[in-house]
């Protein structure tokens, strides 16, 4: 278990996970932080993220939901599209393993 936590909190692999998030694109999530804004202080953000993961104080923001019209037969209904916050880096990190 300690080895997994070390891998998750390791800055170079967090940076690789961030790169995957960046390649996927997207807009700011519920935290209001865009990928561009997160990148502005990338090293500090990754260090903060690593620390909060290591100390088990990391709590992700809820998903940002917004309606997207979807046509069904003769009516148009809204479906909810969910967008995660910019700190989806830990989730991508876990996908690397």
Shape: elongated
The total number of structural domains is 1
String of helices and strands: HHHHEEH
Number of helices: 5
Number of β-strand runs:
2
What's the end-to-end separation, in Å? Answer: 13 Å
Q: Biggest sheet, open or closed, and with what strands and sense?
A: 2 strands, antiparallel
Residue stretches low in confidence (pLDDT < 50, at least 5 long) are none
- Record the strand order, biggest sheet: 1-2
The helix fraction, in percent, is 40-55%
Would you spell out the secondary-structure blueprint of this structure?
Layout: H1 2-9, H2 11-24, H3 35-40, H4 42-54, E1 64-72, E2 75-83, H5 89-95
Antiparallel strand pairs: 1-2
Helix pairs in contact: 1-4, 2-5
Structural overview:
The protein is built from five helices and two strands, in the order H-H-H-H-E-E-H. It is an alpha+beta fold and 97 residues long. It has one domain. Helix 1 packs antiparallel against helix 4 and helix 2 packs across helix 5. The two termini are 13 Å apart.
Briefly say what this structure is.
The protein is of the alpha+beta class and 97 residues long.
List the defining traits of the structure above:
19% strand; 97 residues; elongated; alpha+beta; 2 strands
């Amino acid at each position: 278990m300690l080895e997994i936590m070390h891998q998750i909190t390791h800055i170079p692999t967090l940076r690789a996970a961030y790169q995957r998030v960046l390649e996927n694109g997207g807009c700011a999530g519920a935290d209001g932080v865009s990928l561009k804004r997160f990148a502005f202080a990338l090293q500090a953000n990754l260090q903060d993220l690593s620390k909060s993961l290591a100390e088990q104080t990391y709590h992700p923001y809820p998903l940002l939901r917004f309606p997207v019209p979807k046509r069904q037969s003769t009516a148009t209904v809204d479906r909810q599209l969910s967008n995660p916050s910019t700190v989806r880096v830990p989730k991508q990190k876990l996908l690397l393993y």
